[in-house]
Write a structure and sequence with these properties.
- This protein has one domain.
- The protein has four helices and no strands.
């Protein structure tokens, strides 16, 4: 029972922190909404949901330690590189 409460607490905290912090997705949503209108919101939401689903599947299949270790470092580095040059 404790494990279930720990999973719930961790998931809730992680989701809440992501929902309360404005970040790159909000910036892109505002910019794209001004450019293409209402369609930008659902398109960006769908893309983000697909990415989150792929991450959950990867974690379920045991790739969590890889994503936290070298893979996480690589993904964060690639994201920062792209955010500077794009």
């Amino acid at each position: 029972m404790f494990e279930l409460a720990a999973i719930f607490g961790g998931s809730f905290t992680l989701a809440l922190s992501g929902a309360l912090m404005p970040g790159p997705l909000l910036t892109v949503t505002v910019a794209e909404s001004a450019r293409i209108g209402f369609r930008a919101g659902p398109l960006l939401m769908t893309g983000h949901a697909v990415l989150e689903l792929l991450l959950v599947i990867a974690i379920v299949y045991g790739l969590g330690p890889f994503l936290i270790g070298f893979g996480g470092w690589f993904l964060l580095s690639a994201r920062e590189y792209l955010s500077i040059w794009i």
